[in-house]
């Protein structure tokens, strides 16, 4: 729990959304079969959970106002109704994240832009990138993206970047191509060259016949 509103506000200040004052915000649709629209909105001193019930237009209560639950940081740990609704709609993991956040544990890495995170990854060695991919879903996705592995490929291999190689990376991805052994890679590239050659020959024949 934050020791004081003022000190907590100072800690949070760089991460607060200047437009709406939120420290954390998530909007999504509830898991099937429900189609309810959900929003978690957290400020420096309050947690707000809103539910828009999506009901058939023929029902009398179809146009009801959204359900809104509010709790301050002190009361939230004992707010069974609100906590229960969050778990029911968003899962235990979301509740744990909120508890950690209002307890002063800001996930700074998750709040950095993709561009900044990629710059961090670009400065790591290959072993560190592979280990980082095991840390979280976010880093697993970033650590497997073509932007990262195209750079790794170019930094670690002398294979020229040919049209056939680019076609292969479009099909397999840069990471898969990087981990291919040299014999496999040459076989794949040879097949791509044969396909390209056949297409060119077919195009020339078509031009001559027309």
UniProtKB/TrEMBL annotation:
InterPro entries: F-box-like_dom_sf, F-box_dom. Residues 106-152 form the F-box domain. PROSITE patterns: FBOX. It comes from the Eukaryota. It holds the Pfam family F-box-like. This is F-box only protein 36-like isoform X1. It comes from Biomphalaria glabrata. The gene is 106055705.
């Amino acid at each position: 729990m934050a020791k004081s509103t003022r000190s907590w506000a100072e800690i949070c200040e760089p991460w607060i959304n200047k437009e709406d004052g939120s420290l954390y915000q998530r909007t999504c649709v509830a898991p099937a079969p429900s189609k309810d629209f959900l929003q978690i909105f957290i400020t420096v001193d309050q947690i707000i959970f809103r539910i828009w019930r999506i009901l058939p237009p023929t029902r009398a209560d179809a146009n009801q106002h959204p359900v809104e639950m509010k709790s301050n940081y002190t009361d939230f740990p004992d707010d069974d109704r609100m906590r229960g609704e969050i778990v029911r709609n968003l899962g235990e993991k979301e509740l744990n994240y909120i508890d950690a956040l209002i307890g002063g544990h800001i996930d700074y890495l998750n709040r950095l832009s993709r561009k900044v995170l990629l710059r961090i990854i670009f400065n790591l060695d290959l072993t560190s990138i592979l280990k980082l991919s095991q840390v979280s879903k976010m880093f697993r996705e970033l650590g497997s993206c073509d932007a990262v592995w195209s750079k790794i490929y170019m930094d670690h291999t002398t294979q020229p970047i040919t049209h056939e190689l680019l076609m292969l990376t479009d099909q397999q991805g840069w990471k898969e191509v990087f981990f291919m052994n040299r014999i496999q890679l040459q076989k794949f590239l040879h097949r791509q060259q044969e396909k390209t050659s056949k297409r060119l020959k077919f195009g020339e024949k078509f031009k001559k016949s027309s």
